[in-house]
Design goal:
GMP Synthetase, Chain A, domain 3; alpha/beta; 5-stranded mixed sheet
Length: 412
């Protein structure tokens, strides 16, 4: 593990601190010396990202399982781990119910080479100059996509930073990509994950000259599918294809995957992760598969709304709404209805110039009757999890409590 940090040069610039690879090696060794002599899991719960990263590296070097958790939350009690567990990460799904996901380090390192190839992560900064590429993360290390990015950066020998200014490659959610492009940042490439990439955001990135790699995965599955949009012209489909080393099977609309990257499952709790006897696993995401092997991921099955017996996927409706003029982001929530069982409700982030009546009219022309939201709300900013996903659970609570009533703007 510390072998990743061999050599000279910068390693990290995090939280205003810069450390060389030698300095980070010494810090990791110092942290490891403080571990007790038991084999109990180590908790990486530090508010300081440098300390949190050093704890993770030290635990992995000492062959101690490490639980990586949000320092803003109470430390999780993880009492039961599958055999072979080396890393435990807390999911942050849209429901708000975090679960501890257990995995081996090898389930991540096995994907390092294909991920490097896909993202050109070692590409020199400017022409043939022998400078270390700078890779930025845009979220906390307890989120799996950012911890993976950090470990991959250290393994790759690039400089890991948390400031996107001057970065060559940035790991971000679609929302963050939209914001950095709007702010005038121009990294060579942005790697996008965490939620579906809206076509409008991809178009903004392309207009800014930013290459975009998009991948779909889950904390439980790791990589499932990916696409390098810079290799597809603006009119191309840019469809997700199975990530190298992944076999995909769509069964009655449910996405299953088999790969060396799968987690071991949950640590002491139940959840949507399931395996079959042949090594395929699923978290219940819905998808369509084309004859050429490409995938369209429709979203988690638990985000479905059943309207008078018709299944409506929240992500499909959200994608249609975010394609309307003036809609910056959308969340669709299921609420109980006496006649239909449940109906969809839309909560939107709108541009100042948005025409609300036109949005509802345009939605009627794009959506089927079961898909059309029955209530509409406009709020300044949708609540999101630390991984950038819309927190539908929090919105559902707010709707049930009536706390969004003053933001209601129309009826379908």
């Amino acid at each position: 593990m510390i072998g990743w940090l061999d050599g000279d040069g910068e390693a990290i610039r995090l939280a205003g601190r810069t450390s060389s690879r030698a300095e980070l090696r010494r810090l990791v060794a110092s942290v490891a010396e403080q571990f007790d002599r038991t084999q109990a899991p180590v908790l990486a719960h530090d508010a300081d990202p440098v300390a949190q990263l050093a704890t993770v590296l030290a635990a992995l070097e000492a062959k101690r399982a490490v639980v990586v958790a949000d320092p803003a939350q109470a430390a999780p009690a993880v009492r039961s781990m599958p055999p072979g567990t080396e890393l435990v990460l807390m999911t942050s799904g849209s429901s708000g119910n975090a679960r501890p996901v257990a995995r081996t380090l090898a389930s991540w390192t096995a994907s390092f080479e294909p991920f490097t190839e896909l993202t050109e992560a070692r590409r020199a900064r400017r022409g043939a100059r022998a400078e270390q590429p700078i890779v930025a993360i845009t979220g906390p290390l307890h989120v799996s996509m950012h911890l993976f990015a950090a470990l991959h950066a250290l393994w790759s020998g690039v400089v890991l930073v948390d400031d996107i200014a001057g970065a060559d490659l940035v790991h971000a959610t679609p929302t963050t990509l939209e914001r950095l492009a709007s702010a005038g940042h121009r990294p060579r490439r942005v790697v996008v994950a965490g939620s579906a990439l809206p076509p409008s955001t991809l178009a903004s990135a392309r207009a800014a000259g930013i290459a975009v790699t998009e991948y779909y995965g889950a904390a439980e599955l790791s990589f499932v599918a990916a696409v390098d949009h810079s290799r597809v012209d603006a009119e191309g489909s840019g469809a997700l294809m199975p990530f190298p080393g992944v076999e995909v099977d769509v069964r009655a609309g449910e996405l299953w995957a088999r790969s060396p990257y799968l987690s071991l499952g949950y640590a002491g709790v139940d959840g949507p992760f399931r395996r079959d006897a042949n090594g395929f696993a699923t978290v219940g995401d819905r998808a369509d598969a084309a004859a050429n092997g490409s995938l369209v991921v429709r979203g988690r099955g638990d985000s479905a709304v059943t309207v008078s017996g018709t299944t409506v996927l929240a992500e499909d409706v959200e994608a249609a709404l975010t394609g309307l003029a003036g809609v910056r982001a959308a969340a669709v929530i299921a609420v109980p209805h006496a006649l239909h069982g449940h109906v969809p409700v839309a909560v939107l982030e709108l541009a100042p110039s948005a025409d609300r009546a036109h949005i509802i009219t345009a939605a009627r022309s794009r959506l089927t009757a079961p898909e059309l939201p029955r209530r509409w709300y406009a709020i300044e900013s949708l609540p999101r999890t630390t991984s950038g996903k819309v927190a539908r659970g929090a919105l559902g609570v707010a709707l049930a409590a009536g706390s969004l009533d003053e933001d209601r703007f129309g009826r379908a």
